[in-house]
Structures are given as C-alpha cells and as structure tokens.
Automatic annotation (TrEMBL), chain A:
Name the record gives this protein: Sugar ABC transporter permease
Family classification: Belongs to the binding-protein-dependent transport system permease family.
Start and end residues of each ABC transmembrane type-1 domain: 91-316
One of the Pfam families matching this protein, by short name: BPD_transp_1
Origin species: Amnibacterium setariae
Lineage: superkingdom: Bacteria
Gene3D superfamilies in alphabetical order: MetI-like (1.10.3720.10)
Record's keyword annotation contains Membrane: yes
Residues annotated as transmembrane: 30-53, 95-116, 137-157, 189-213, 251-270, 295-319
From TrEMBL, chain B:
Subcellular location: Cell membrane
Membrane topology: Multi-pass membrane protein
Transmembrane segments: 28-50, 90-116, 128-150, 162-182, 215-237, 257-284
Species of provenance: Amnibacterium setariae
CDD domains the record matches: TM_PBP2
Annotated protein name in UniProt: Carbohydrate ABC transporter permease
GO BP terms in the entry: transmembrane transport
GO cellular component: plasma membrane
One Pfam family from the record: BPD_transp_1
Main location: membrane
Record keywords, A-Z: Cell membrane, Membrane, Transmembrane, Transmembrane helix, Transport
Length: 332, 298
C-alpha cells in the first residue's frame, strides 16, 4: 500500500497532478489510491500476471504437481515436446487453424459487412441491401451463445444418421451422405470443425466492420461510384485499404481464438478426433496437466502456444508494414 | 435509421429508375447480394430451430424421425434436464458465480480505469500496458499455475474463488474500454466537485459513476455474456460436480455419451443455456452493438 502511495506524487502538469504533491496527501487520497488502484492491481497481479510468469519457470522443471519435487531440467520439456508425435500433430493442427480461420472469418465478415452497408442498388445514395440492419442483428446471434452449446448443437447436426445436415443432404437426393460421419472421418473432421468456429464467430466481426464502414466518409464511396467503380472494386480497392487498422486488430483476435479452440474441440471431438485430426495444443495441454499430472511438461506446451501466438501477431504486423502500413491511403 | 433516411431510401431509387432503366447486371448483382444474405441467415437460424424442435421430442423420436415435428410438446425433457441432469443446480451456481464476478469486475474495473484515466503518477502508462497485455496472453499458459495459486489460497473449487478468478481475467477488457471513457469526461466536473469540498471518494461515487452510467451499462452487458460463456476456467478450476457451472455441466452431460443419453433432455439443456443470453441480447441489442462499435475504433 505505501509503495503505491509513494509513487503517486510526480512533477506533472499544473492542475490535476498538483493535487498529488506530498503535502496534499490526505487520508482521503491515500485510502482512495490504495483501494482504487491497489485492490484491482493486487487481484490482477496474483491471479493473472503471476501465473504467466510462474508457467515459464515451471516449463523448465519436471514438476508433477502434487509432490514437492520441482527438479530443474532446463529445456528438457521442450526437447521432449518436439519428439512427441502426438504433440507435434497438435501443433500442426493448431497452426493449420491459425493459418486458415482468421483469413476466412475476416474475408467473409468484410464481404457480408459490405453487402449490409454499401451493397445496395448503385443508383441513389450509397446504402446496403434491403434489410441490412436485420441481417446484422441476426448474424451476431451465434457469437453471444455459449460456445459449448454451439459445439453440442453442431455435434448433433453432424450426427451421421440423426443429424440435420445429412437429413438435408439426403432429402435433396445426395444418398451417399445417408450416414456420412462428418466428425468421424479424418478427411472432413477438421473442415467440419472449422465451419462451426466460423459460424460461431463471424457475426461479431460483421458488426465490427459494419461499424467501421459506416464511420468512413460517404463521399469517398460516392466519388468512386461517379468514377465508375463497381461494387466489387469499391469493396477491394476502397473499403479494405481504409479498414486496415480494424483488419489488423481483428486478425490478431481471430488468431488468438483459432489457437485456443478448446471449447469447440471439447464439444465436437473431445478425444482429438479420428487419427488425432482435430487435436490441438490446448487440448493436449489440458490432458497433460489435469489428467496425467505432468505440470512442468504442460507448462512447456503453454509456452509453445504463447510463442506461436506472438509469432502470428508479429507476422500480421510485419505483413501490414511491408504492404504499406498507414501510408497507402494516399496512393489510392 | 431515421424516418427521413427511410423516406430518402424509398424515394430516390425509384426516381433513379425512371430516369434511366436499371441495367440487367445491376439487378443480378442486387439479387445475388440479397440471396447470399438470405442463405447466411438460414444457416444461422436453422440450427436453432432444429434444436428447439428437438428439445420437445422424446429420445426415441430424436433418433428415429429427426426431422418430423414433435407429436406433442414433451415438456418433461425440460423437467428431466433441470432435475436429473442437474441443470437446475448448475443454473443456480452460474447465477452466483456470474453475478458475483460481474459486480466485482465492474467495481474493480471502473475504479482502476478511473484512476488510470484521471490521475498522473509514475508508472501509470506501465500499469495500463500491463493490464492491456492481459488481453492477448493465451489463458492456457496461466491455467496450471493458477490451479495451484487458488489451491494455496484455499479458493480452489469454491464458487467465490471462481467468481474472483473470472473477474481477474475480465479486468483487462473492462479497463481497456473504460479508460478512454473516463478520459473523455470533462475535467471541469471533478474540479467543481473538489472546490465544493468533495473528497476523491465522493467525487467518484456521486459525480463520476452517474456520468459513466452508459459505459458501465454496456460493459456490464458485454461482461455478462463473456462470463456466462466462460468454459476453460470452470473446467480446470472447479472439479466438484455439485458446484459445476452451466457450461461445464453441459459438457459433462453431453460427454456421458453413448446411446444411453437422453437426447431430448440434452437439447432442452442447450436451449436453457442459450435462453438467458438470448434474452439479454435481444433486450440490450442496440446498446450491445453500440459498445462493440466503441471497441472497433481503438
């Protein structure tokens, strides 16, 4: 508490900062600082920050949790991880997810958001297709529903003999799908899972991009249209470049979402799917820690997951910079 | 849409159409756009309708005639899910945990954001960045040490422990969105309050909180949805079945697997998990998408 109070007075600007000079530190102000900043910070430090730091340390030990033996084994867990076929498969699947999902989700979201906002008839004022607002509200629906409920629902939809999907396919004459196991066949399990993840999350990004497009000056679109640009050209040459910052942020969030994927995998194929085709790092980590009790090893997997997340974010920023970053608007 | 916009949208295209005939390509593109959105809407809605329909059938009907309408509304599915599958108990646990976590998150989040937004002190920027960094770390990295920290504090597998952990992980998001909001409030208000003799505490609770009501409301809704849907934290940190929260109980119920499972009750359980968030969404839809818009700008 005193540490917090001591950091408060600074030689800052006149009005507000002046109130925090030492001689003004009344009881009111000290308790205020201690409670307002102190309590949230302590909770955050103990329950959020410290576990991250500890995980990095545990990843260098052979700790199995319930005994006190935390032998320091350096990078031993990491060496083991990359010789572990199951874990390597999990890494490959996670990387596949993070390479595919963000691009699919954001491309689809931008396309739908463009339809909703500027896809309407190209005479008259720039506007969306009829009922755009309704679609925006509707598409957001899946996002607010607990992911586990989404997963269980789709698990039933994909059910080989009683599921909605095969029911629809057979009713339109595709009899080959009468009992096709979408989640039980290694060829389709991952794609089917990805579809569910897109279904669950795309609406959120539609809402984000609708808001971002509406915030753009309408004159830009009107001018482009006067110059003879069609809807597709407007979307690719004007909307996308102007939304660059939103796209970058959204890519990173969808990347984190793709690398987690734990809920969806637990609901659709808890065991990792046929031939581990949908096994992801988060699942393998959870099993290693809470079923096998190998906590040091599990933490090493967590560090690998964090490293992939950072790498992905780094690539997004790098590509953004290489393709022109903030300057490109003047070129358009 | 305001009425004038609606009027404009309704009048202008027709005026345009009379002046020069709409080209065929134009009509095709318009039709395709509308068709794409209709297909998407169906893909979103159909699974829900099918789930709701199935929740009123017996397991036998679900397995043997998955596409026919239920012969009558088998409400016993809901009763079975509520009592036998324990959804009722899980529901009560969830209300306690999410309610507690929501209050904690909003109180701690707005206090912390207010302090970071309105007071200069050494390390302000560092604290803010440390908070925001919490938004990007994969929670999986923290989960193992977190288990043992809660165990050490005697909070593992308790509802209060779960609530405080939920709110700790919801803090970065809350602070991230509240800081710009408090920053935007005019400084003259606090100065006036201070001249009138209000201390920092009174200024916050009697002046700032009422002014921040819109932001607090939208963030409460967003946090409610996020906390209600929380899955990894309870699965890892709440092993006692009597204390399961809804998402966790759902997974366990679905995971009992095999054909022994009561499918009608499973669908009923899914519907009951969805309904609360759906109600919140429909009631607060405008505010909710509005707050997502705030976030999109950052």
């Amino acid at each position: 508490m005193t540490a917090v109070a001591r950091t408060l007075p600074t030689a800052g600007g006149p009005s507000r900062a002046a109130r925090w000079r030492r001689k003004n530190l009344t009881f009111d102000k000290i308790t205020f600082a201690a409670v307002f900043l102190g309590i949230p910070l302590v909770v955050y430090a103990v329950l959020v920050l410290s576990p991250f730091v500890q995980a990095v340390y545990y990843s260098l030990t052979s700790w199995s949790g319930f005994d006190t033996n935390q032998a320091f084994i350096g990078l031993g867990n990491y060496a083991r991880a990359f010789q572990d076929d199951v874990f390597v498969t999990a890494v490959r699947n996670s990387v596949t997810l993070v390479l595919v999902l963000p691009i699919v989700i954001i491309a689809l979201a931008i396309a739908l958001a463009s339809l909703v906002t500027i896809g309407g008839a190209s005479s008259g004022p720039v506007r969306g297709v009829r009922g755009g607002e309704f679609y925006r509200v509707l598409l957001f629906f899946p996002y607010i529903i607990p992911a586990i409920a989404v997963g269980i629902m789709w698990g039933q939809i994909y059910d080989p003999s009683n599921g909605l999907l095969n029911g629809i396919l057979t009713s339109v004459g595709l009899k080959d799908f009468a009992s096709y196991p979408w989640l039980g066949d290694a060829r389709t399990a991952m794609a089917a899972t990805m579809f569910v993840m897109v279904w669950a999350s795309v609406g959120f990004y539609v809402v984000i991009f609708v808001a971002a497009i509406k915030a753009l000056p309408a004159e830009v679109f009107e001018a482009a249209r006067l110059d003879g640009a069609g809807r597709f050209r407007i979307a690719t040459r004007i909307t996308v470049p102007m939304l660059r910052a939103n796209i970058r942020t959204s890519l990173i969030y969808t990347g984190i979402f793709s690398l987690d994927a734990f809920v969806f995998m637990s609901a659709l194929n808890a065991g990792g799917g046929p031939q581990n085709s949908t096994l992801v790092i988060s699942q393998e980590l959870f099993k290693t820690a809470f079923t096998k009790g190998q906590f040091g090893y599990a933490c090493a997997m967590g560090v690998v997951l964090a490293a992939i997340t950072l790498l992905f974010a780094g690539i997004v920023f790098l590509v953004d910079r290489l393709t022109g970053g903030a300057e490109d608007l003047s070129e358009e | 849409m305001t009425t004038s916009q609606v009027a404009r949208a309704a009048v202008l295209p027709r005026a345009g159409r009379t002046r020069r005939s709409v080209p065929t390509g134009e009509r095709v593109v318009g039709g395709v756009s509308q068709a794409v959105l209709i297909v998407c809407a169906v893909v979103v809605v159909l699974p829900f309708l099918w789930t709701i329909m199935s929740s009123f059938k017996t397991t036998n009907q679900v397995l043997n005639s998955p596409f026919s309408l239920p012969d009558r509304l088998h409400l016993e599915n809901y009763a079975n899910a509520w009592t036998q599958a324990g959804i009722g108990q899980f529901f009560a646990n969830t209300l306690v945990v999410v309610g507690g976590a929501l209050v904690l998150t909003m109180v701690m989040g707005s206090m912390c954001a207010y302090f970071l937004a309105r007071f200069r002190f050494f390390g302000n920027r560092a604290v803010y960045l440390l908070m925001v960094a919490g938004l990007t770390f994969p929670i999986f990295l923290a989960i193992v040490p977190l288990f043992f920290i809660l165990k050490g504090l005697g909070l593992l597998g308790t509802l209060p422990g779960l609530a405080i952990t939920y709110s700790a992980f919801a803090l970065p998001f809350t602070v991230f969105f509240m800081v710009p909001f408090f920053r935007a409030l005019p400084a003259s208000v606090t100065e006036a309050a201070s001249l009138d003799g209000a201390g920092e505490w009174r200024t916050f609770f009697q002046v700032m909180v009422p002014m921040a009501r819109p932001a607090i409301a939208t963030l409460s809704i967003l946090n409610f949805v996020g906390l209600w849907n929380q899955f990894l934290l309870p699965v890892a940190l709440n092993p006692d079945q009597r204390k399961y929260v809804l998402t966790q109980g759902m997974a366990a119920f679905a995971g009992t697997a095999g054909y022994s499972i009561d499918f009608g009750a499973l669908f009923a359980a899914v519907v009951m998990t969805i309904v609360p968030v759906l109600i919140v969404y429909l009631v607060f839809q405008r505010a909710l998408s509005g707050s997502v818009v705030i976030g999109a700008d950052k």
